[in-house]
Amino acid sequence: MHQLFRVFLLFFFLQTSIPSLQAQRFMAGLSGGLNLSQLDGDDLSGFNKPGLNIGPFVNTVLSDRWQLGIELLYSELGSSKTLGDPASASLEKIAIQAVEVPFLLRFREWKFLLAGGLSYFRRINSKVTDYTGQDVSDLVQLQDNHLAIVLGSAVFLQENWGIDLRWEKSLSNWQADPNANRLISRHLSIKTFYLFK
Q1: How far apart are alpha carbons 21 and 10 in whole angstroms?
Q2: How high is the pLDDT of residue 22?
Q3: Are 105 and 61 in contact (CB under 8 A)?
Q4: What is the pLDDT of residues 21-41, one digit of tens each?
Q5: Cα 166 to the chain's mean position, in Å?
Q6: 5: which residues sit within 8 A by CB, 6+ positions away?
Q7: For a surface tag, which of 54, 64, 157, 173 has the fewest beta carbons within 10 Å of its beta carbon?
Q8: Residue 20: which pLDDT band, with cuts at 50, 70 and 90?
Q9: Cα angle: 8, vertex 156, 149; to 5 degrees
């Protein structure tokens, strides 16, 4: 995790401290919005767990159309019970707070961006609540490290800001207990972004 943070800081330092390179090779910005998430395997359905998704990003410009990006995000994931879920579901809510580091390849055409890549999550906190409202986090152990696939698209509404929509799905299991149901995360992110000029 420290290595990823150092790489991000290097990209950000180059972006902000070398003006001659800024216009040609690097772009930095901020993004922020919401995750709508769920976990497959907990008997709860629907993208009913909203959470924050916010942080800085740096893109390396490879050509007029291609960019390589890295981000450092605070991301909230999990699942939440609703009236449509079965009464037999033993959990009320799973709330995960994580540092998310997406590595994305982006393709730009006019005002539109398409992106794909991998995202690494490092869990910093979590809370699991059962159907009675009790905290059962000690009984449902979650992994500290997680990996997901990312697909997304964005549109520039003006020269330096726009809207970003992403879909992410687990490539690994959040569940730490090998004998328990797998917990596979899926979430949609809806964010605005701002590019520094």
Answers
A1: 14
A2: 47
A3: no
A4: 445 588 999 999 999 999 999
A5: 9
A6: 72
A7: 64
A8: very low
A9: 50
